[in-house]
């Protein structure tokens, strides 16, 4: 996966600070709604609309909706449904057996573990990087800020090649992570780098300094201020970014293909295992593991949605 | 003190994870000069790969732009049941693994699948051919234009559109003269993101392409294939070309937005 | 929109229109050019690319363009069966061709010619690091504790089947002592840490630093050396003769051109290119063809009972010698 639109659009907000022109895209939270209170579409300042226009609106809605549904169905819905169907068409026992074959199970375990590790590292380091980019100032900060988006834009196979060149057998600095789990984690860290940074940055930018100043004037040290005032405000953004990073690492394929060497039971992630099964024409086995990945992705998106709504209620 | 500590930690992390790998690839590509780089990229296979990539990306971008603008208008200006479901479905493609996307398309459009088999009898081959790769690329870049345009559409409000309608203009003219100019910047931004994503796709097209060198090989597939054949020079050259495209994309998106004022 | 924004929009429009005009100029062959699709196993990629270039210099090949696909022999064969368009197919071993004959994609007479449909030969060799530090020269050396052997997965890669049968044939005294052979395979695969899906990929794995020895085609070891990889190889005394089949497909859109290309593959010119890439020629009198060492106890697949029997006994995913061994090691077997 190359571009993560939500967070990259949040990147724009980080770059644009507070003032916006009306024609510039607004910051997005992962749910896709503009930050802050948004008017219900089309409500409010509607002028008197003659009946003919209202009827036209409904017809237009149906046509548009129909077209969108057909497009989505042909390209997204039916194919994904086919995956789930293929994995269960021979019954739940077969599904479970396909998921539990030693190499599939090992691949799933590795993928989940690595993704959790990567998400945790990102939670901490992403916040640190965001903090440094917002609150600190140093020579070359603009360049560093711009570079953060690079893993979004870089094709995954290029990321893999790049990391292999640096941390593989021909590494100029002598670190060889090829065929190791550390290599897999390194690849995943690279591609998920921007997620937490770009979700936390806009929140940090918009944070009202007054509360911190008030706390300071009341005698609170920087640690206490951070824990009690800043962190709770950052928390929803940190969680969103981490969940996005987790989802991305679970699904990642291109960057791990080269450096991990795909040793089954050692460094083979789920997506690579699925690829192998497809090549061997074992589509049922591939579909089973894919369904597991889909369920995990769905679960994460749901959690994200819940966190989102909790965040806007308490924020 | 804490400030310097944090700064060091962040910069060291970024250095080893981000700066050093990219610098190395550029170094390895150009260490023998510009000529080998150009030569590797102008070989017939490389040129063909560029062509395939551009065609697939262009088709995907055009399709997703039309869909994107349409769905953005639908989501923002219209009311209907299931709106939240549509919203969620559009975001789905970003969470799915590219390999799963490829598998999904094979299961529906492959030769032994219902739709695919019917199309094959009409002489249209989807999987192992360009159309399949276009579908895969559309899937992965689906939400980008929608998500860029929708918020702006919402912010713009529909007063002007309403005014135009009451003054007698039909919906198409209103769209062309009022809506479109308003979302121009956002649309460009979305199209750039979509194009960059489409150019860089690897996993999903790897599954559906059949690895036909000089036929269905995109630049990303070319990178992997050359690397597997011990042709590091060509692989690195193509990888750097893609990295340059990525950087250009980032620069273009920055051009459209106000500069960092923090 | 600001000026910079307009510039960005213009640039995007330019790129898109360039791409769409590329559509117009067309991807495929021009009106008088014929495009043939070659689907082959992974290792002869370099050889075929050179042969295609040589063919296009001949009057027959002047107006012929090629698209090529290379991958694990089994995977490629299944892909063609699933719809991958092919005019000429080249596999590592006969059963991958037989699959297409059964599917009606290749004519039953593909092996009627003098070379029985084969285009190149090779042998299974033991590849090692440069200088062979662990002194691995023979089959018994490979089952010593602590030795890691790289070989692909026999259920996806043709090369892997040759490897398995070479080891089996050597240690079972050419099928005279089956139990000893099977026992050898069990112990060998305990020393295999990873099974890639194609011969080329397993070579990649080996040259990237994994393993002490690799079982490979002789031509793969030669290819590695030609590409300056630090690899040595030994031809064991007892090993199997690898024979690689090639054929034209029945549903080819250009059968005449495909057949002409096939004929060219048998020509001295093409066979010489195969030799330069490390393959043993099937035609007599090819320059350089006699440089290859002849192992004392070389045997063929017919000495082991022929592919049909061997496949059933060794490589049947539902139950066979290799299926058992792989399951014991937890490696997935095609279902």
Note down, in words, how this protein is organized.
- Chain A is an all-alpha fold.
- Chain A has helices spanning 5-16, 51-88, 92-100, 102-135, 141-147, 150-153, 156-167, 181-206, 209-217, 222-251, 254-259, 270-279, 283-314.
- Residues 1-47 and 49-55 of chain A have low confidence and may be disordered.
- Chain A has two domains: 53-89; 93-314, MetI-like (MetI-like fold, Orthogonal Bundle), CATH 1.10.3720.
- Chain A starts with a helix and ends with a helix.
- In chain A, α4 runs antiparallel to α10.
- Chain B has one domain: MetI-like fold.
- In chain B, α1 crosses α13 and α8 (143-156) runs antiparallel to α10.
- The longest helix of chain B has 34 residues, at 44-77.
- The relative contact order of chain B is 0.14.
- Chain C folds into two domains: 34-120 and 244-281, Periplasmic binding protein-like II (D-Maltodextrin-Binding Protein, domain 2, 3-Layer(aba) Sandwich); 121-241 and 294-329, D-Maltodextrin-Binding Protein, domain 2, CATH 3.40.190.
- Helices cover 42% and strands 17% of the residues of chain C.
- In chain C, strands 1, 2, 3, 4, 5, 6, 7, 8, 9 and 10 form a ten-stranded mixed beta sheet that branches.
- In chain C, α2 (45-56) links the parallel β1 and β2 (64-71).
- The longest helix of chain C is centred in the first third of the chain and has 23 residues, at 3-25.
- In chain C, 51% of the residues are buried.
- Classes of the chains: A mainly alpha (315), B mainly alpha (262), C alpha/beta (335).
- Chains in contact: A-B, A-C, B-C.
- Chains B and C meet through α3, α10, β1 and α13 of B and α1, β2 and α8 of C.
């Amino acid at each position: 996966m190359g571009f993560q639109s939500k967070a990259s659009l949040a990147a724009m907000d980080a770059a644009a600070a507070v003032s916006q022109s009306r024609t510039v895209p607004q910051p997005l939270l992962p749910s896709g709604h503009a930050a802050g209170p948004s008017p219900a579409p089309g409500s409010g300042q509607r002028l008197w609309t003659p009946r003919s226009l209202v009827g036209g609106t409904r017809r237009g809605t149906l046509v548009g909706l129909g077209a969108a549904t057909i497009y989505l169905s042909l390209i997204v819905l039916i194919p994904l449904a086919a995956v789930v169907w293929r994995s269960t068409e021979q019954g739940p026992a077969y599904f479970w057996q396909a998921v539990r074959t030693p190499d599939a199970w090992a691949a799933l375990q590795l993928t989940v573990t690595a993704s959790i590790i990567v998400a945790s590292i990102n939670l901490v380091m992403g916040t640190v990087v965001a903090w440094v980019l917002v609150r600190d100032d140093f020579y070359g900060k603009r360049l560093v800020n711009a570079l953060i988006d690079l893993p979004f834009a870089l094709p995954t196979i290029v990321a893999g090649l790049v990391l292999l060149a640096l941390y593989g057998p021909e590494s100029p600095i002598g670190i060889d992570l090829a065929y190791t789990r550390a290599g897999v984690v390194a690849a995943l860290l690279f591609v998920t780098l921007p997620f937490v940074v770009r979700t936390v940055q806009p929140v940090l930018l918009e944070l009202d300094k007054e509360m911190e100043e008030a706390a300071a004037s009341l005698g609170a040290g920087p640690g206490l201020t951070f824990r009690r005032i800043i962190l709770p405000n950052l928390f929803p953004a940190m969680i969103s970014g981490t969940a996005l990073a987790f989802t991305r690492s679970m699904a990642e394929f291109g960057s791990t293909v080269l450096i991990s060497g795909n040793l089954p039971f050692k460094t083979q992630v789920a997506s690579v295992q699925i690829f192998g099964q497809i090549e061997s024409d074992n589509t049922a086995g591939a579909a089973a593991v894919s369904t597991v990945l889909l369920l995990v992705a769905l679960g994460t998106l749901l959690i994200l949605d819940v966190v989102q709504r909790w965040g806007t209620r308490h924020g | 003190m804490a400030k310097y500590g944090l700064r060091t930690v962040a910069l060291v992390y970024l250095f080893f994870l981000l700066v050093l790998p990219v610098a190395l690839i550029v170094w390895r590509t150009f260490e023998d000069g510009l000529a080998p780089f150009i030569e590797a990229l102008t070989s017939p296979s490389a040129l063909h790969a560029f062509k395939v990539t551009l065609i697939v990306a262009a088709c995907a971008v055009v399709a997703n732009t039309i869909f994107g603008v349409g769905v953005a208008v639908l989501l923002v200006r219209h009311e209907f049941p299931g709106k939240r479901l549509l919203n969620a479905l559009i975001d789905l493609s970003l969470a799915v693994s590219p390999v799963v996307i490829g598998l999904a398309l094979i299961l529906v459009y492959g030769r032994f699948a219902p739709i695919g088999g019917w199309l094959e009898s009409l002489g249209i081959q989807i999987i192992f051919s360009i159309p399949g790769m276009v579908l895969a690329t559309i899937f992965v870049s689906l939400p980008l234009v929608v998500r860029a345009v929708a918020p702006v559409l919402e912010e713009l409000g529909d007063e002007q559109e309403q005014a135009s309608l009451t003054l007698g203009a039909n919906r198409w003219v209103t769209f062309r003269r009022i809506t479109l100019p308003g979302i121009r910047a956002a649309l460009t931004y979305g199209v750039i993101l979509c194009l960059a994503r489409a150019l860089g796709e690897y996993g999903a097209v790897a599954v559906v392409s059949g690895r036909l060198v000089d036929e269905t090989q995109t630049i990303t597939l070319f990178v992997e294939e050359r690397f597997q054949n011990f042709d590091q020079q060509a692989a690195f050259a193509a990888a750097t070309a893609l990295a340059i495209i990525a950087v250009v994309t980032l620069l273009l998106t920055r051009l459209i937005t106000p500069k960092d004022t923090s | 929109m600001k000026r910079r924004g307009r510039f960005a929009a213009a640039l995007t429009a330019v790129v898109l229109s360039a791409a769409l005009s590329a559509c117009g100029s067309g991807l495929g062959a021009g009106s008088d050019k014929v495009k043939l699709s070659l689907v082959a196993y992974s290792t002869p990629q370099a050889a075929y690319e050179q042969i295609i270039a040589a063919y296009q210099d001949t009057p027959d090949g002047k107006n012929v363009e090629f698209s090529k696909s290379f991958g694990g022999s089994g995977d490629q064969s299944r892909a063609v069966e699933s719809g991958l368009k092919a005019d000429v197919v080249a596999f590592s071993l006969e059963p991958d061709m037989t699959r297409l004959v059964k599917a009606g994609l290749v004519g039953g007479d593909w092996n009627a010619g003098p070379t029985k449909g084969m285009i190149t030969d090779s042998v299974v060799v033991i590849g090692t690091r440069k200088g062979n530090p662990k002194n691995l020269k023979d089959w018994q050396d490979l089952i010593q504790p602590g030795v890691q052997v790289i070989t692909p997965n026999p259920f996806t890669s043709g090369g892997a089947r040759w490897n398995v049968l070479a080891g089996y044939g050597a240690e079972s005294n050419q099928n005279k002592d089956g139990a000893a052979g099977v026992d050898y395979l069990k112990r060998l695969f305990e020393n295999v840490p990873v099974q890639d899906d194609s011969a080329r990929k397993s070579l990649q794995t080996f040259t990237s630093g994994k393993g002490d020895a690799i079982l490979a085609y002789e031509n793969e070891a030669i290819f590695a050396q030609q590409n300056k990889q630090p690899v040595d190889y030994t031809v064991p005394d007892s090993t199997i003769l690898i024979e690689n089949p090639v054929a034209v497909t029945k549903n080819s859109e250009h059968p005449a051109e495909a057949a002409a290309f096939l004929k060219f593959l048998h020509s001295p010119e093409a066979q010489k290119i195969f030799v330069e890439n490390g393959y043993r020629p099937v035609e007599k009198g090819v320059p350089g063809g006699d440089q290859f060492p002849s192992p004392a106890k070389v045997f063929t697949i017919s000495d082991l009972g022929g592919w049909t029997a061997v496949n059933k006994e060794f490589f049947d995913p539902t139950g066979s010698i290799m299926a058992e061994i792989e399951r014991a090691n937890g490696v997935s077997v095609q279902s």
